[in-house]
Write a sequence for this structure.
């Protein structure tokens, strides 16, 4: 980073209002959450299908482009476009997809390589531990991304989702390890419950944001060329 | 399109800054551009509450003064023309952040006093 960029990012407190408006604009439409919620639900469904979960690894490649395309089509005609200086909240989507898919999706494969065979008792034992620990790992990863959005935009909904992600991840790991409640079950059921829960909540949060955005920015100005 | 290193770079920085700080609309537009790499006119229209004619008049004045660059037309992937600070305009904002902050605080204070007066 050049000296100029460092200076630019160290802003006076009075400038915060404008920076906040820029960050908020990039997530105000709710599309990022709708796509993230959809990803988590898809991941939840695929997590029950064994190796098929690796299919989600292709999403980070396409989702960023899909999000931009949606925003170009539905957001820019209503509220315009801004690319904030420095941080890019919109990059959270491919980032979270990539880390979640790589860490959760490929961990059993690496474990199998380390143990030599999928049928070895050592692999099965370690796999059980891995599955028990997955909810808290996924909860912290998803929660970190949501916390980043909460800090940048100061939208309360991201703080609430962060708390839910980390708390639910911890609870599901503990209940899975103690084998109590409804969470008892083989394989990745705990992870399925966490991703399903977060997917529904994030999707609902995005849908509410999208409806509010449509109401706040009616289509009246859409399609007008200001050139 | 104005030369990015044109009028702002050639005139005295203090004089330029006083000129900017004296116009609330200029200050607000420049602040939205300062925290961004790229912005389009629709965003400025929505954020500044200026009407379309007034926004474009202000942008033209700022472009003539060498602070902003306006794309000649909407790009192939944009609904409205893009606007950004020129290199010289950004440098001047960088170098005078405290003075700009004071002007913003003063503007906010005037607006809140006006709002309170209106409410009373």
């Amino acid at each position: 980073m050049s000296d100029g960029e460092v200076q630019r990012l160290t802003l006076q407190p009075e400038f915060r209002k404008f920076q906040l408006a820029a960050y908020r604009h990039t997530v105000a439409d709710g599309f990022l959450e709708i796509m993230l919620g959809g990803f988590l639900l898809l991941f939840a469904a695929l997590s029950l299908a064994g190796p098929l979960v690796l299919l989600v690894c292709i999403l980070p490649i396409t989702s960023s482009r899909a999000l931009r395309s949606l925003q170009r089509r539905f957001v820019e005609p209503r509220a315009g476009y801004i690319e904030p200086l420095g941080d890019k909240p919109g990059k959270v989507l491919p980032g979270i997809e990539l880390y979640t898919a790589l860490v959760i999706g490929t961990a059993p494969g690496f474990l199998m390589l380390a143990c030599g065979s999928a049928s070895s008792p050592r692999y099965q034992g370690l796999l059980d531990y891995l599955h028990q620990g997955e909810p808290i790992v996924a909860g912290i990863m998803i929660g970190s991304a949501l916390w980043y959005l909460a800090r940048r935009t100061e939208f309360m909904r991201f703080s609430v989702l962060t708390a839910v992600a980390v708390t639910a991840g911890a609870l599901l790991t503990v209940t899975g390890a103690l084998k109590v409640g409804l969470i008892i079950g083989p394989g990745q059921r705990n992870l399925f419950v966490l991703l399903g829960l977060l997917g529904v909540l994030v999707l609902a949060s995005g849908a509410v944001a999208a409806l509010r955005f449509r109401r706040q920015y009616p289509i009246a100005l859409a399609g007008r060329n200001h050139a | 399109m104005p030369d990015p290193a044109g009028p702002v770079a050639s005139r005295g920085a203090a004089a330029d800054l006083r000129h900017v700080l004296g116009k609330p609309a200029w200050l607000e537009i420049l602040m939205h551009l300062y925290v961004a790499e790229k912005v389009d006119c629709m965003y400025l229209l929505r954020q500044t509450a200026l009407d379309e004619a007034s926004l474009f008049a202000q942008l033209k004045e700022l472009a003539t003064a060498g602070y902003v660059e306006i794309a000649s037309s909407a790009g192939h992937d944009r609904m409205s023309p893009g606007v950004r600070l020129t290199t010289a305009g950004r440098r001047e904002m960088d170098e005078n952040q405290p003075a700009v902050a004071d002007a913003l605080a003063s503007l906010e204070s005037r607006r809140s006093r006006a709002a309170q007066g209106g409410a009373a």
Remarks:
- Residues 1-6, 9-14 of chain B have pLDDT under 50 and may be disordered.
- The interface with chain A takes residues 31-32, 34-47, 52, 56, 72-74, 77-82, 90-91, 94, 97-98, 100-101, 104-105, 108 of chain B (CB under 8 Å).
